[in-house]
Structures are given as C-alpha cells and as structure tokens.
Amino acid sequence: MRADLAMWRIILQRWNGTSFLTQEPSLETSEVLATDASGSKGFGGFYFKTKQWFQSHWSKDIKLPDEKALSIAFQEIYPIVVASLLFGERWQRRKVLFLCDNSAAVYIINKGYSKCSKIMQLIRRLVLTATVKGFDYEAQHLSGVHNESADALSRFQMDRFRHLQPDSKDLPVPCPPPHQVLLR
Q1: Of 77, 72, 80, 73, nearest to 32 (Cα)?
Q2: Are the CB atoms for 42 and 70 separated by under 8 Å?
Q3: CB 151 within 8 A of CB 109
Q4: Which residues neighbour 168 within 8 Å (Cβ) at sequence distance 6 or greater?
Q5: Do the strands 42-47 and 52-57 form a parallel or antiparallel pair, or are they unpaired?
Q6: Which of 17, 91, 110, 147 is the one with CA 20 to 30 A from 97?
Q7: What is the pLDDT of residue 10?
Q8: DSSP-derived secondary structure for 100-142
Q9: How wide is the angle at C-alpha 49 spanned by C-alphas 137 and 95, nearest 5°?
C-alpha cells in the first residue's frame, strides 16, 4: 500500500491536470508493439509503426527475492515496461496495444495487480509512465507462433528477425538500465 501511495504522489507531482479520452485499441488505429522474453537469453520488442526495435540480455541486477530464477510473468512484463519508457513520449493521447504471448502477464497488466511484489514494481512503473506521458494501454494475448519478430529478438536470432522484418531500423533503441525500469 505504501508503494502504491508513493507512486500516486509521484503522479500528482508531475500531472498537468488534464486527461484525454482515447479510442479503443484496434490493429488499424492503435500503437502496436509485440514483446517477448526468453528465460535464458533476454528480452525484446518490436514497434510496428516506426519499425523500431529493442533487445537486451537479462541483467544480473534483476533478482526476485523469493525465487531462484525470474518468473515468466515478470520476464514477459519487463519488456512491456521497457517499451513504455522508450516510446511513451510518442503515445500521448493514444491507446497502446501490447501483444504478449503469455496469458498470465496479459492478465496481470490488464488487471493492474499481482501478488508478487517485484511484478508490482513493474506494474507501478507502467502505470506511472502511462499517466505521466498521457497514454492508455491494454495487453492482448498473441500466440507464440504469431509472435515471431519479438521472439527472434528475445533470442538474439538476428538473421531470423531481419527475414521477418526486412524494413526494420538498422540499430536497436538502447534499453534503460534496470534501476530505471523497476519502481521501488
């Protein structure tokens, strides 16, 4: 509860006092990103409209206190939060559709809650970023076989990614460090 109150204090300090209604998401009118995480390698995401992409190996600084390894829900939500930090400035007054191949992550993002305190750090960062940058979002499940571009990025399979997205930008957008992604 204290972490939630701290998040809202930050929002209120930065909020300009206005809010905009957004359209319901659709693949034709929304900002659409596909993200993915590979447990042993890293994570990545592809922004369809701008053809920009990002990827990174998992940092040793990211640890869950109660688990030996990062949970898959945490791993799948992490690149969504990274995407919001990287591209959120462009999404003002828009609704963003995050495509994710993990049903639990989609449920947590849309509900805005998890029992895991580390996942809640990600959810709070997403809510804070969306509020401050002025965008709305929704997560939608995309089966793994249809999430090929993001899957290739999370596994560092660049030849496969270039084959799937030949018009993508040459270089990735640099990812923020973990201390900027996790909201404490």
Answers
A1: 80
A2: no
A3: no
A4: 46, 51, 52, 53, 161, 162
A5: antiparallel
A6: 17
A7: 65
A8: ES-HHHHHHHHHT--S-HHHHHHHHHHHHHHHHHT-EEEEEE-
A9: 20
Token pair of 105 as six digits: 């992550």
- 55 within 8 A of 107, measured Cβ to Cβ: no
**Are the CB atoms for 182 and 118 separated by under 8 Å?**
yes
Q: What is the pLDDT of residue 23?
A: 47
In tens digits, the chain (184 residues) has pLDDT values of: 676 666 666 656 666 666 544 444 444 447 999 999 998 899 999 999 999 999 999 988 776 555 566 789 999 999 999 999 999 999 988 889 999 999 999 999 999 999 988 899 999 999 999 988 888 999 999 988 899 999 999 999 999 999 999 999 999 999 999 888 886 6
Would you state the structure tokens that stand for residue 110, as one six-digit string? 């849309």
Distance CA 140, CA 3 (A): 27
3-class state of residue 56 by DSSP = strand
Q: How many CA atoms lie within 13 A of 31 on its CB side?
A: 23
Query: What residues have CB less than 8 Å from 88, skipping those under 6 apart?
Result: 129, 130, 133, 135
